[in-house]
Amino acid sequence: MAYANSTAEPYILHSVVLGPYISTGASEPVPRYNQPVDSSTVVILDFGAQYTQLIARRIREFNVFSVVLPCTASIDSIKELNPVALVLSGGPSSVYDADAPKADPVVLQLGVPTLGICYGMQFMAHHLGGEVTPSDKREYGDATVNVLAKNKLFAGLPAALDVWMSHGDSVAKLPDGFVEAARTENALASIADEKRRMYAVQWHPEVAHSKQGTELLRNFVLNISGAKPNWTPESFIQTTVERIRQQVGKGRAICALSGGVDSAVAAVLVSKAIGDRLTCIFVNNGVLRKNEFQQVQDNMRSKLGLNVVAVDASKRFLSQLGGITDPETKRKIIGREFITVFDDEANRIVKEQERKAELKKEPAGSEIAWLVQGTLYPDVIESSSVKGPSQTIKSHHNVGGLPADMKLKLIEPLRDLFKDEVRRVGRDLGMPEEVLERQPFPGPGLAVRIVGEITPERVEILQNADDIVVSEIKKAGLYKQIWQSFAVLLPVKSVGVMGDQRTYAYTCAVRAVHSEDGMTADWVPLPYEVLKSISNRIVNEVRGINRVVYDITSKPPGTIEWE
What we know:
It is built from 14 helices and 20 strands. The chain folds into 3 domains: 39-224, Class I glutamine amidotransferase (GATase) domain (Rossmann fold, 3-Layer(aba) Sandwich); 233-436, Rossmann fold, CATH 3.40.50.620; 448-550, GMP Synthetase, Chain A, domain 3, CATH 3.30.300.10. A hairpin with a 4-residue loop joins strand 9 (179-183) and strand 10. 31% of the residues lie in helices and 24% in strands. The chain is α/β, with parallel strands linked by helices. The strands form 3 sheets. Strands 4-3-5-6-11-10-9-7-8 form a 9-stranded mixed beta sheet, with helices on both faces. It has a 7-stranded mixed beta sheet with strand order 2-1-16-15-12-13-14, sandwiched between helices. Helix 6 (261-274) packs across helix 11 and helix 8 packs antiparallel against helix 9.
């Protein structure tokens, strides 16, 4: 299958570490960086901040290749990437804590332009002879920074900056060679040693709340570091396809196809690399949306030309999920069962090939050794601390839920990309908008939207309610404007009255959010008429629900999904 390059206007791929990541099992994969030839690389050391990948995103906005490494990365592994610049991320610890993230201070002697952000500023000061102490007044949220000494980092920026702070410690004593570059009312906000091209800021320029943050990072990456802005989606596709081709060799692979954007783009990338040696497997896990089992099969075959094998394992999954109410347990059960189904299907496909080859008296071909998944970075960062000491939020079925004894080796070409970046890659592959604009749907399906026990009856109730939510959102012309919109079934019953009779039925929550990458989200103020139509239809058409509520929680403090 071949896809022509998109003829649309060029766009920016502003992502993070590019893989694919290759694993020999469920243990943590080793990154094989698709470092483009003749491009500049910025290395970001992760000290555990939830925003580390946003730093990489901002750098990618300048079309500059960037790699996120754990703060514990060896000096040799950093040097191998031949970085033109180094960024030290924020983090939740204090530099004087016994369990503070441990990075080799030699990184500060690499002789490349270095930018410390928040914890990174404190790490820099601490290891270069300065002093860090707890602040008299901690700073969290919006703040104003006054620039004291103009330097290349602040070139073209105003004397007062609107920034976003998140720190309880401050630099109390400067290292030799550094000068104060900026302050807030309460603390030192920036230091600089221009001779050594070392800069640090106490705030987070990578977040949207820091209004001049992008300009500051641009100054560091393009002007101070002199990085080449030549990293594009096309080069990502080329290097990723070539890497997959080398890794798989003459082998065969299966793809865990969900019908969503992530797995579809992953499947097309791998298909581009190994052609018909890829078989896509779409599993009905019993918690899909209404009519989705057939619709996904039709779309993936007719619109993408993929070789799709459909497996109805709904009874198998629902049996395993029976009586389970803990969200983490649900996710891990689903992850385990998916892998078991894929193992079974791989064996079945190989045996079928052997049987056909025997009849034709031809070689049977290679066995299936690889499993392709559409894992994205939000799945990874919320599931496990893979690059630094960031905190686990929840286990995603395709990351934290993988069994330790899985036989198939993983190919995850999108593992460090965000959703919007995946869509851009899909457009560059020439994939249809109908597939790319589909709202995200979680791998565990409706299992994480049914709070409490999962039963066939409750699945059917939610399928019907969710179908109404999506159809009304589409009818209002809002589907493409909203990141995600769906229904949640709560384990809460309330008294109602219908037809002059008392009812006692479930409560349904409606959720709609705006997001750029799934890491943060704001609830959508849906028009009252849309909410009215959704509520009326659910209560009137879905037996088992007599009350509808609207979720107005952002992320953070909540997550997009309820479980």
